[in-house]
Amino acid sequence: MPHQESNNFSAPSEAHNFSALLFDMDGTIIDSTPAIVKYWKALGKQIGVDGDYILETSHGRRSVDVLAIHAPHLANWEYVCKAEGQIPLDYGHDAIEVPGSRALLDQLEKVGAPWAIVTSGTKPLVTGWLNVMKLAFPKNMVTAEEVQKGKPDPACYQLGAKRLGKANADPNEILVLEDAPAGVRAGKAAGFKVVALATTHRIDQLRDAGADWIVRDMRSVTMTGRDAKTGIVGIEISDALVARNALQALANAVVLKISNRIKVAISLNAVPASPPHVREHSHTLSRITQLHGNFSNIGGGSDLMYHRL
């Protein structure tokens, strides 16, 4: 979970209502990174390409798209489906659950809430992992071989919403849960709200991709209930990332208050004044102004948390 220790995940809880939830698989529900690393390194040896080089850009993308770059002769669904279907069988012990994912999926299943898996993996890979990990099995899913373009193209998430009967729903009522920048961009391009889990990528990458919330893992996303008549699902998002611009807003307020006090002090000393005191106040004000400029470099805005409205 990269660089989480240097970020502030303490934003106040928010309650929202959604008509559907669309989950990415790897890095969101499970973390099979060690297994995928072994898979690509083994495949890299077969095709004569450094596995680490492939891994730099493979996460969150379809294998067929990665192979189209490095080994075009293998970029076909027959090969990819067979190869990916072996990953849970060969490396099943290398995968773990993302904290909180099992509980959330079980909650959704228990009340019959509309949810689906939308993944860059093939159907054999997804079903293999769900069986090995014994996780809730969705009634609907969208897998890599079902769309012409993979993430960050929005087609996969649009298809996911359609399969849940929400093609014409308000986009703001559909929640995407992702861990990869490509997936975050796909969800936002579809017009949906996106929670990004900081499980596999840097915070700045998720922020730049446009995530509405950034959280450590799925423990920050909980179901509060489901309306039996409308089917709307209540979701609470807690301990999201506090944005750097919130720190700037606080700094601006402090600097402004201090500056005003110093200006008053200078004006009071101006007539009967003791020149050294005036010079001291002036120097302090100059230093405060400089510090204000430094704080401004942190970033703009005054949102209290990292949440794009």
UniProtKB/TrEMBL annotation:
One of its GO terms (molecular function) is sugar-phosphatase activity. This is DL-glycerol-3-phosphatase. The gene is GPP1. InterPro entries: HAD-like_sf, HAD-like_SPP, HAD-SF_hydro_IA, HAD_sf, PGP-like_dom2. It comes from Extremus antarcticus. The lineage of its organism: Eukaryota, Fungi, Dikarya, Ascomycota, Pezizomycotina. It holds the Pfam family Hydrolase.
